[in-house]
Amino acid sequence: MASRLEAGSQVAESGLPEADYEKRELLRLEAVERFARGDRTECVARDLRVTARSVRRWRRAWERGGMDALRSKGPASVERLSPAQWDRLERELRRGPLAHGWDDEFQGWTLKRIKLLIGRMFHAGYTVQGVWKLLRRHGWSAQVPLRRAIERDEEAIEVWKAEVWPQLKGPRRTWAPTSASRTRRDGG
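== Winged helix-turn-helix domain-containing protein ==
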């Protein structure tokens, strides 16, 4: 987990930006208007670009609890780490797994390793899925290796890309469809 996503966007506790809650709620409330007019589920789903299953679920909730049943309830979970604890965890993650005793061949962070680190540092229990949500909530993305092999030859790679790969790949196909009919040029 090495790179950061866009910084500065306000993110809710569940990992979604606050604006997404509002957008989703507006979408559900638009569906309610369509339900009241008697629009069919498939039409509502197509027009709102959501699944028919979601629309059916929204319709059932609306029939049971009215418009209030489709209003956003906010984040589903509350973060257990304080801002100071998160800052400390982030510093430790930047130090790398080797600094925390993982000295095997793979020198990257895994969700399981981060889960164990959180447990050691803060005595807080997270599931692997919970760790992923925590990291995503704070703008961390999937790990991209920072190190390259010592033997890596950049010049050889560029030559291979420029000369060898185009030969292996073959010519580009045209966008135009081809004819499947049997025709002869000589007219016979």
